Amino acid sequence: MARGNAPKNSDLKNDKKLVLNKGALAEIERGHPWIWRGSISRESIEDLRRMAAGDEAALVTQDRHVVARAIVDPDSPISARVWTMEDEPIDEKLIAARMARAIALRTRIAETDTNAYRLLHGEGDRAPGVVVDRYADVAVLRLDGDGVRARKDSITRAIEPILRELGIGTLLQRGRADETVVLFGELPKGPIAVREHGVPFVADVVRGQKTGAFLDQRENRRRVGAMAKGKSVLNLFSYAGGFSLHAATNGAKKVTSVDIAGAAHVTAQESFKAAGVDPRAHDFVTADAFAFLENAKRQGKSWDLIVSDPPSFAPNEKSKERALAAYRSLHKACAAVLAPGGTFCAASCSSHVDARAFLTTLDDAALGRHDLRLVALYGPPEDHPTLAAFPEGQYLKFAELA
Ligand code: SAH
């Protein structure tokens, strides 16, 4: 994707074109992959209306110079997503090249005792809207937007040989309503046994959230494991118990997992057993985390290590203030049950709450105490690359306070 190679005029035949305003073109040059409907010139909006989801369009300046090529999604506010700055078609060859380059970036992970990780991270791997996660020999595809959804068959054809080469015999697609479709191979009979830094766990790729697990927290789970020995641990919003499992296998005294969804605890307990830990030695509480914390405070309970990893509180920019208030009250409630000398790990996966805003929910006033220090602020691991010019992709924050 070398700069300066962009041609002056497209050589591609029958080219559909969208004229963009200058500001949007500058953002594309910086590497932002999304074209908002409002960035498309009025004359081109008519052209866009005649296009179908999945069509390819050249993004051009007022004087028709081609800057980039994109897949369009005419009915979405994100009307097009950039795949390339070169004068090349967005075809199976290009999709296969993106997949191969993404896999090369995961070589180091593949060499560790980890076989659940993200193989292709959409925008971050310059394959906008296309996510592929690996769980041992099963891969799960998620397609974001009608543009790439319209190209499901060609995407599958492009990546199948590459996945098979990795020893992956099954590709599933998880849809918007969380339905599961088999793209090749066979539907797994039950949860899949995988390993994360040597810790065995099970992932329900057919019914679980996202593609079965929150793979973006892998390194943070390992970090929590490394701090857990001999400690009482509270894992809030525990889902399938990832943080709990790393704490328990690393010698935590007792782990309390809290999630509002009782079914998640069933998967968590299966993972505990797979890892050789007796789940009966630990607590699994089905409750609202806020109510749980209030009760715990009233009863004078405290923990040495607390992890809080809630779902996104800010689905859009408008809800940001409300989300910040929710983080503040959650963090204050956590600080109130953190034992003296304890460690508090607070995560946020809201892209509308950036790192600086998130830290305002963890300052002394927010926590109601003056003894904690910010030890580190982590993000996602290398299988979740981001683009410098794409803040929407920089969603995960993980703060360690002690
Ligand atoms: N920490 C997990 C991922 C958490 S996902 C991991 O590493 O895998 C967020 C979880 O929060 C979901 O399982 C959801 O059921 C749960 N949840 C949502 N609202 C909640 C609430 N008010 N109280 C407790 N759990 C909640």
Description:
With 402 residues, the protein is α/β, with parallel strands linked by helices. The chain has 3 domains: 9-84, PUA domain (Archaeosine Trna-guanine Transglycosylase, Chain: A, domain 4, Roll), CATH 2.30.130; 92-190, 2-Layer Sandwich (Transcription Regulator spoIIAA), CATH 3.30.750.80; 214-401, Vaccinia Virus protein VP39 (Rossmann fold), CATH 3.40.50. It is 30% helix and 26% strand. The protein has helices at 22-30, 42-50, 92-105, 107-111, 146-149, 152-165, 218-227, 242-249, 262-274, 289-298, 320-335, 355-359, 364-367; strands spanning 17-19, 34-36, 56-60, 66-72, 78-84, 116-121, 130-135, 138-143, 170-174, 180-184, 192-196, 199-203, 232-236, 254-259, 283-286, 303-308, 338-348, 374-378, 397-401. It has a 7-stranded mixed sheet with strand order 15-14-13-16-17-19-18. Strand 4 (66-72) and strand 5 form a beta hairpin. Helix 7 (218-227) packs parallel to helix 8. The radius of gyration is 23 Å and the shape is globular. It starts with 16 loop residues before the first strand and ends with a strand. Bound molecules: S-adenosyl-L-homocysteine. S-adenosyl-L-homocysteine is lined by residues 213-214, 217, 237-240, 242-243, 258-261, 264, 288-289, 309-311.
